[in-house]
Specification:
By secondary structure, the chain is of the alpha/beta class. The chain is about 25% helix and about 30% strand. Strands 3, 4, 5, 6, 7, 8, 9, 10 and 11 form a 9-stranded mixed sheet that branches. The protein is globular.
């Protein structure tokens, strides 16, 4: 691993399962379990010719985790310059400069960097919460942009993904179950056929708080599969599946 310069509020965390190190900051942004789940769920091509784009990339966690599943080129698109800087240094930290690049851009400008309909897979962990007059937003502007639809929204995310993806290309998204009807409607309106759904539950007796969705560009309308549920905690400890996802087999 290379040495990189850290700011005073930053630390280096490791996803032990695949030995990826990532620069984190509680003051700015830290990846959470949804990023790990999305990277695990995403069924990307292994080929070195594959083009993969991670939208709303944050500090680059999803793209870094995906680098262990593919030989393809991964581009991380993020609007916040501080998070791009963290992502770029994490790429250097893991010596992945030949495979992963970071683009500081509004996702609406993604087609400035790619030809239309040229990408094999898009992953996205978008802001979950629509902005309403009554919305309580995080006072930290970095976290507010990451969690609330201040700089983009679901329609823009889905439109951009559809524009980027070639016919047969796949979108992999993590979001909140309460917005699932809206998500499915947006996908179908933008030539993206939902193909897989998987719900994530904090505990077995609680409602799902996360949903993973896979969609295919210009795919058949039929054939949606609902994958087995994922439960995160058994009591106060991670379930064996999540334990393995984070730390690998013992």
């Amino acid at each position: 691993m290379e040495q990189v310069q850290l700011r005073p509020d930053e630390r280096i965390d490791q996803l032990y399962r695949n030995h990826i190190q990532i620069i984190q900051s509680d003051a700015v942004f830290s990846f959470s379990l949804d990023a790990v789940m999305l990277a695990h769920f995403a069924n990307v091509k292994r080929s070195a010719k594959a083009q993969i784009v991670d939208l709303c990339a944050g500090n680059g966690a999803v793209g870094l985790f995906l680098s262990q599943k593919t030989h393809g080129q991964i581009t991380e698109v993020e609007i916040q310059s501080r998070l791009c800087d963290m992502a770029e240094r994490s790429v250097q930290l893991n010596q992945l400069e030949q495979q992963v690049r970071v683009v500081h851009a509004d996702l609406n400008d993604s087609l400035h960097y790619f030809a239309k309909e040229s990408v094999d897979a898009v992953t996205v962990n978008p802001p979950y919460f629509p902005v309403k007059v009554t919305s309580k937003k995080n006072p930290n502007p970095y976290l507010a942009i990451a969690r609330h639809e201040l700089k983009t929204n679901l329609t823009q995310v889905v439109t951009t993904a559809s524009d980027l993806l070639k016919t047969g290309g796949k979108l992999f998204m993590v979001h909140r179950p309460d917005r699932l009807p809206e998500i499915l409607a947006e996908l179908q309106a933008h030539r993206l056929a939902p193909k897989e759904i998987q719900f994530v539950y904090p505990r077995a007796n609680q409602d799902a708080n996360m949903v993973l969705i896979a969609a295919r560009k210009d795919g058949q309308a039929s054939g949606l599969k609902v994958r087995p549920a994922i439960v995160v905690y058994a009591g106060e400890t991670y379930t064996p599946f999540v334990q393995e996802l984070l730390y690998g087999s013992k």
